[in-house]
Amino acid sequence: MEKRRVWRLSIPEMLATSLAAMGIGFFIACLFYDCVWVMAAGVLIIYPAMLFVNEYKEKQWRKRLNLEFKDYMYGISNALLAGYSIENAFVEAQKDIKALYENKSVLIQELGNLKKRLNMQENLEKILQEFASASGSEDIESFVEVFCYAKRGGGDFLQIIQTTIRRIGDKIEVQEEIETVIAQKALEHKIMCVIPVVVLVFFRFSSPEFIGVLYGNLPGVLIMTVVLIFYALAMFWGAKIVKIEV
């Protein structure tokens, strides 16, 4: 069985992320330490930044895959009601997805040309199991597991598909409701993250002598380091609070 898809950033994405991370590192080094050597250490945040961006893009990809899979289930359901066999229903539904998303469909990219694979005598259950395993989606994996059992035992495919549609649709709807409810809190969190930096920049340019004692000496470096650590922890903690997944 095919293993779960391992997400990898493309080379342009890696370059963009590296440049952004170096820019942020340079800005932090200038603002908190005003030291050339610390500025050079800004490259240390490139790897964590890549991990963060990689995780974010993977979640966005899986979210889109679930959405397309729900539309795919609608297509299969309609094809079954029209009298297609189960294999042909999957093939016909793929045509609907291609028409709906054109060449941008992540589901088509992962599932491949189903008609061609079936014509090459590949088993539908095996194809779906590989697809579910690679997707890493709990909803898709659950559907395929139940579908395979039902196909062997002659279960009600239409009922299984409609149940899957309701489950994924309810999950997406709940997630959107949660995002709407916490949207204000998420905005407040972003503002609170920016305010300390704005205040520090203000003092650096308007009253440099006010915080000048914090630069170029060991006590100042220690204080700024502690402040930076607490600031990073507060940002991370706040992001966790406003991030609710279904």
Describe the 3D structure.
By secondary structure, this protein is mainly alpha-helical. It has two domains: 63-173; 182-246. Helices cover 80% and strands 0% of the residues. It has twelve helices and no strands. The protein has helices at residues 11-32, 36-40, 46-81, 86-101, 106-111, 114-119, 124-135, 138-153, 157-181, 183-206, 208-211, 218-241. Helix 3 (46-81) packs across helix 9 and helix 8 runs antiparallel to helix 9. The longest helix is centred in the N-terminal third of the chain and has 36 residues, at 46-81. The radius of gyration is 25 Å and the shape is elongated. The chain starts with 10 loop residues before the first helix and ends in a 5-residue tail after the last helix. The relative contact order is 0.09.
Could you name the key traits of this structure?
single chain; 246 residues; 12 helices; 2 domains; mainly alpha
Task: Give the topology.
Layout: H1 11-32, H2 36-40, H3 46-81, H4 86-101, H5 106-111, H6 114-119, H7 124-135, H8 138-153, H9 157-181, H10 183-206, H11 208-211, H12 218-241
Helix pairs in contact: 1-3, 3-4, 3-9, 7-8, 8-9, 10-12
